[in-house]
Amino acid sequence: MESQVRGGTRWKRFAVVMVPSVAATAAIGVALAQGALAASFSVSGQSFKVRAASLDGKGFSQYGAIDSGYTLSGGGETGHPVAVSAFSKATITKLCQSVVTPNIPVIGSVSLKLTAGDSTEEAKKVHAENLYIDVADLDAGSAEFRGMDIGVAGKDLKGPKLKGGKELSNPNGFAQQADEAVLTDVKQTAWATTAGTFTLPGLHMSLSTGVNECY
Questions:
Q1: Which of the residues in the chain have pLDDT under 70?
Q2: Is there a contact between 164 and 10 (Cβ–Cβ < 8 Å)?
Q3: What confidence score (pLDDT) does residue 6 get?
Q4: What CA–CA distance (Å, rounded) separates 190 from 155?
Q5: pTM tops 0.90, yes or no
Q6: Taking burial as the number of CB atoms within 10 A of a residue's CB, which of 40, 42, 110, 168 is the most buried?
């Protein structure tokens, strides 16, 4: 069987825009919930946590890459090593993303948490297209890959195309892909999440003092 070359993908950024106006924040939340906006989430120089009860993704790709905008210790180079995972389409149940900003004067730590898709009904699950995650750590209760193959990073086959803003850690390095990937009880530490479109039924965003993470 011929060895195939695989392409990258990444859960890129899921940008929650913090604005002075509560009305503007609400409008952004409504638009995301209706799938009207491309979505990204990233925190400068900071990782965040992502949890999902289940993730069923079609067109999966994964490879090693370097996130830009970070300083690696010792070498003075900018970048942060990640395992980039991507899905052409994904259905997610009980999605949670959280980030803690520590050491704010007077207040201390502040936690931002986003949740959506708390129902198991298909219409009330989170749906995403061209979904990327820049993963630093991953745990899953179970994982099933269908139509899987392993090869060399650098060229997309089954997942979304390689996007700008990332540098392959090794263009000839390890990569994998699958027609479908089904994961349950997913816990990830990530540096960025991005989707071309996100539909987030039951979207809820909260800010709280102290540490309040997804897991």
A1: 1-45, 68-79, 154-157, 163-167
A2: no
A3: 38
A4: 23
A5: no
A6: 42
